[in-house]
Write a structure and sequence with these properties.
The protein is α/β, with parallel strands linked by helices and 243 residues long. It is built from nine helices and twelve strands. 33% of the residues lie in helices and 28% in strands. It binds adenosine-5'-triphosphate. Pfam families: ABC_tran.
């Protein structure tokens, strides 16, 4: 059987944020889990912000042919969900309330997402009384519950324990396999190499490499960008930074 053509999902044309992100063209197709890696300050959050339309970015973003910037709130929820790096929510609301914020028609999907993130037993607890990792899972549940075409996730595994880091990457892989796209900023190169379908490497507000994760992680770009080197023991600082 002929392979099915992939759906063009996201097209970001000359997307930029002055002083934060250089003009960037990006096309992402479904299904796909795209990991963004790069040193601190390299522009991962800025790229996610620009894609999500946060902070008056320049350029245009089209998702399945629709201009994401012109979409109304309900349409935006179907197009994409954004998980910020800062999950420090201190609202006196329950887990179920927060997971369903702005998702009035999605009660069942919210319950399913709470189950996926193993939060059902917490559903009536206040989010401001949860641990940091638990709060992260609540906001992840909200992102998944909207069932958007595109997930934009900033360091979703930060604050998660090792088991939940792996579980979340499995969940994201399954989400991508079900026809979505996810663009995920990550600092863990090994998880990025293991799970991503595509790896984008950023430096100084630019995409400097974009390709197959294992090939990129085994090649010269990552060591040069981060100033690290790989051995049997894992990653370690390179004696002399080359980038
Ligand atoms: N609100 C802002 N206004 C101006 N410059 C900003 C703003 N936020 C970030 N920057 C700058 O933009 C650059 C990219 O920051 P960004 O947060 O996108 O990096 P990052 O790759 O996500 O970093 P990290 O790994 O530390 O989260 C940095 O030099 C940062 O100082």
């Amino acid at each position: 059987m002929e392979p099915q053509p992939m759906t063009m999902l996201l097209e970001a044309a000359a997307l930029a944020m002055p002083r934060r992100l250089d003009p960037t063209d990006l096309m992402v197709e479904t299904p796909g889990l795209v990991c963004l890696v790069g040193p601190n300050g390299s522009g991962k959050t800025s790229l996610l912000h620009a894609l999500a339309g946060i902070g008056s970015p320049l350029g245009s973003v089209r998702i399945d042919g629709k201009d994401a910037r012109r979409a109304g709130p309900a349409e935006r929820r179907r197009l994409f969900a954004y998980l910020p790096a800062n999950r420090d929510i201190a609202w006196p609301l329950t887990v179920r309330d927060v997971a369903g914020l702005g998702l009035g028609d999605y009660a069942r999907a919210v319950d399913e997402a709470l189950t996926t993130l193993e939060l059902s037993a917490f559903a009536d607890r206040r989010v401001d009384r949860l641990s940091t990792g638990e709060r992260s899972r609540v906001l992840l549940a909200r992102a998944l519950a909207a069932r958007p075409k595109l997930l934009l996730l900033d360091e979703p595994i930060a604050n998660l324990d090792p088991l939940w880091q792996l579980r979340l990457m499995d969940i994201l892989k399954a989400e991508a396999a079900s026809g979505r796209a996810a663009i995920v900023a990550l600092h863990d190169l090994d998880l990025a190499a293991r799970y991503a379908d595509r790896l984008i490497v950023m430096k100084n507000g630019q995409i400097i490499a974009d390709g197959h994760p294992r090939a990129l992680v085994a090649g010269p770009v990552i060591p040069a960008v981060f100033g690290i080197e790989h051995s049997e023991a894992g990653w370690s600082p390179a004696p002399h930074r080359t980038a």
